[in-house]
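Lab meeting, action items carried over

1. Structure of the two-component assembly. Owner: GW. Status: complete.
Input record:
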Amino acid sequence: MAAPVLRWGCRGRRWALACVDGGSCYRRGPPTGSTCDRIRGQSSVAQQPLHTAQKPRKGEHKWAAVVGLEIHAQISSNSKLFSGSQVRFSAPPNSLVSFFDASLPGTLPVLNRRCVEAAVMTGLALNCHINKKSLFDRKHYFYADLPAGYQITQQRLPIAVNGSLTYGISAGKERGQVIPKTVRVKQIQLEQDSGKSLHDDLRSQTLIDLNRAGVGLLEVVLEPDLSCGEEAATAVRELQLILQALGTSQANMAEGQLRVDANISVHHPGQPLGVRTEVKNLNSIRFLAKAIDYEIQRQISELENGGEILNETRSFHEKLGCTVSMRDKEAKQDYRFMPEPNLPPLLLYDATSLPTGADPQQVINIDQIRETLPELPSVTRERLVQQYGMLPEHSFTLLNEVGLLEFFQNVIKETRAEPKKVTSWVLNIFLGYLKQENLAVSESPVTPSVLAELLDLLDSRTISSSAAKQVFEELWKREGKTPGQIVSEKQLELMQDRGALEQFCYSVMKDHPQVVMDVKKGNSRAINKLIGLVRKATLNRADPAMIKEILEKQLST
Amino acid sequence: MWARALWLGLRAPLGGPRGFTSKTDLQGSGRITAEVIEHLERLALVDFGSREAVARLEKAIAFADRLRALDTDGVEPMESVLEDRCLYLRSDNVVEGNCADELLQNSHRVVEEYFVAPPGNTPLPKLDEQEPFPHS
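Predicted assembly:
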């Protein structure tokens, strides 16, 4: 797999700044290509680099960045991985802690069936090979929020291996074109979460809350197939959507249900991989992209200036937009992995190997789980494109915005209007209003039924397109009026009387013989002037398309 | 006292070096270097208080080394005596918790239902800063 290439003509902080722009960086800057293309210099728009002042150095160096991700997703379950205490985001400190979670002597781990099912579902959704036998191990390190002094994980033989995650990068050049990319999934393993530490620097102490200790986690390890912040952010977003569609994790980064650590290194293509750094404390998808791009540029700058990269852990500083070394960490941790002596191997079955007469509660059938998998985002998007004739880019937007797909489908259910009309209204106008006021779909003043009603009026040609937009603006004001009410109040109904309209057209033409002359002479723009005049005369209550048709008919006679 | 605790700990079977990477691989040599002692002390938070303790450690390792005399080529290592037992799967129901008061009684210091710990990990003194081994 050829690693993408970063062009670095000469050191230029200006160049670095242009690329560090996180978030929707492929919208700003050059109009074509994604961030990665820009960095690669493969954009088809011939652009002069920002650093034209200096001559390009001899033997222009190309850099390639390599990004590997370790993603921890909290399993959505009622109780914890090895104990029966509750899993809940907020609760009084230490109230969701069992004796096992507090690591009291004499307690033993008991595996939660739901967590195993969640791991199998996720493994299947990511095209992994599910290991019919997997093992649990202890990973030892000392920290106050890990009362046992070790974490139970699956280091030797995890539950799923060798999968793939496909995501789509928007190619800004042609609207609606989405390039599919794949990152390999190295493995998925079950492990325990640790408790939470609250650092009280004032009193030089740490407060420990073990509510989170023992909650089940899925660790998804991705191979270093990613090459920039945008790819990483998109891949993580896709994983989020998959986990949410499966119901295996709510994957909310803000609530700590999805945590991502990035391993980043740079090298010259063809040469061995460089020293990597680990970046932690990434609390949102946007910061993930920003931190990765910053770190790539930092490493390139460092190496270009003759420095070297230390194999260290760095933290992302949100306000400053940079990564900072966490140098107080020990050089290399020795986790002293050992088999978890209290847990036998985890055995999974399929339809052919299922033991007869087994208690169904005690066996897990991979085939049965595969059959009951919910629809994955990629399949949903494909279905939307086929069913409603929308562009792939639209399907991505519909799934990316929380609640938007459901909204869209409810409108479709209740309106007679064409799906393409609905798509356009939901993605352009509705979404536009939401974004302007930074609202979630759930906070929208316009419900699907109301929008459906409006689109029906438009579809039946009761109102014009511009009138519909006016009505929408009124609806957004939360005054509780229906579209029908607004239309009659503001007298926005289109004229239905064709005869009256013909009369208007005739009189406008009579009053403006010069314009009529222009049209007859072949000036195509002149007819728009006539249409405008008729619209004014009819107080905007005539359908422009109909006006044009009548005018053309009258002009030809 | 620490040395005795370590001796008892070492009588349990050592984790197989085959399954995991091990920093303290002492093939052949019976001597344990100061670096290894420091490393072990940091990893396991034990205190080798005396030279006698280190000597005891070396003897324990030599004792366990006799396992290498066995020819185990082609034999799958046994990871657990439970390897042919059934792993019990529990239903996903909430049956425990809600005992903060009881748990907090175990803690030396408590602040508003939180356990109190020192800030971060207290770093161990470096080897050269330590007192030389006292005679036992």
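2. GW to write a short summary for the group page. Key points so far: Helices of chain B lie at 2-11, 34-44, 51-65, 100-104. Residues 39 and 99 of chain B are 38 Å apart (CA to CA).
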